[in-house]
Amino acid sequence: MKSAIVVGATGGTGSVITEELVKRGIPTIAFGRSRQKLEKLTARLGNPSHLSIAVGDAFRPDDIAAAAKDTEVLFHAANVLYHEMESKLIPLGESVMEAASRLRMKVVAIDGIYPYGRAQTERVSENHPKQPHTRKGKTRLAFEQMLFADRWNQTKVSIVRLPDYYGPTANDASYLGSTLEAIAAGKIAFFVGNMRVPREYIYLPDAAKMIVSLADHEEAYGQNWNIPGAGLISGKDIVRLAQRASGSSKPIISLGRIGLSLIGMGVPVMKEIVEMLYLTKEPVVLSGEKLKRQIGELQATPFEEGMRITIQELQRRTLNG
Questions:
Q1: What is the CA radius of gyration of the chain?
Q2: 252: Cβ contacts below 8 Å, ≥ 6 apart
Q3: 88: burial class by Cβ within 10 Å (0-12, 13-18, 19+)?
Q4: What residues contact residue 77 under an 8 Å CB cut-off, 6+ apart?
Q5: DSSP state of 220
Q6: Number of H helices, E strands in the chain
Q7: Any residues with CB less than 8 A from the CB of 221 and at least 6 apart, and which?
Q8: Strand, coil or helix: what is 319?
Q9: Which residue did the predictor score with more confidence, 55 or 248?
């Protein structure tokens, strides 16, 4: 890969992908709406000479195309608010694809597991049927179909699918983001879903390493790829590791259907999570066999180490304002 642009560079996944590209010495453009956030990102990465920023609106293909000129790969890490997914996800993707098609760029789109629906096998491979039964799952499947549509015949697309994730850059787009922020701050925290059922989570810096490695393979395009985590872990064990790292033991409140619905009367995004609660009871666990055959050994930071690094970084940011 000679050069790249990351659309949505200041988000949870976009920032770690940007960081990984920079670490590999790849000339990179960080694209986002907020100059302040982009400048904060470049400062955190040490203001490297091969990282530049571009301020623009990802819903405007002209903005993306102007910023992405002469770059080879576009990482689509921009997202929409959870409760706006049905109305805005596909228009956002169409904007990205229009810009990439004009410039004949390759696109790596970051997505999740919703299109699979309920797991029909113990480990979900890329060949698993896509039979979503939720509104968000159906929207995500339509998003995939749009990305692979024939009208974008001037570009090549790869979709990488992540399970729920955590890490220093994770935010409210992740079920664990606000939970770990509260634990790091020594506050009462909420945990979405059943805390006893082991589920799959990926440490975001691991995901970035595998995504960037995959993007360098020409044969990776035109396909879906599952990016698995380091195994399964229950909510109780997540809390135990996070509290050990933070030195806090404030209560953790588990939120189910009723709790989310009540909070959702004031916070729309929480109400929108209700239909996805099946994932907290019937986890979808990704198979990484196809990915391993393509890129070799997979990244899998142990949960204890990943939680410790995440909590310590969140605490450091709080102290530094």
A1: 19
A2: 179, 183, 188, 189, 190, 191, 195, 239
A3: middle
A4: 6, 7, 8, 9, 11, 13, 14, 17, 110
A5: G
A6: 13, 12
A7: 106, 156, 157, 158
A8: helix
A9: 55
Question: What is the longest distance spanned by two Cα atoms in the chain?
Answer: 54
Q: Is 283 helix (H, G, I), strand (E, B) or coil?
A: coil
Domain 4-170+201-231+284-300 has what CATH class? Answer: alpha beta
- How far from 175 is each of 273, 283, 291, CA to CA, in Å? 9, 14, 25
Residue 6 backbone class (left: φ over 0; alpha: ψ -120 to 50; beta: rest): beta
Q: Which two tokens stand for residue 61?
A: 């293909």
**How many Cα neighbours within 13 Å face the side chain of 30?**
31
- For residue 75, give the amino acid letter: F
Q: Distance between CA 123 and CA 186 in Å, rounded?
A: 36
Percentage of the chain with pLDDT > 70? 96
Overall residue count recorded for the chain in this entry: 321
Residue-level pLDDT at 264: 59
At 315, list the tokens: 């605490």
Q: pLDDT at position 177, please?
A: 87
User: Nearest to residue 298, comparing CAs of 234, 221, 192, 207?
Assistant: 207
> Is pTM beyond 0.85 here?
yes
Report whether pLDDT(261) > 90: no
194 exposure class (CB count in 10 Å sphere: 0-12, 13-18, 19+): middle
Cα distances (Å, whole numbers) of residue 207 to 203, 216, 282, 310: 7, 15, 23, 15
Specify the pLDDT at position 268.
Answer: 63
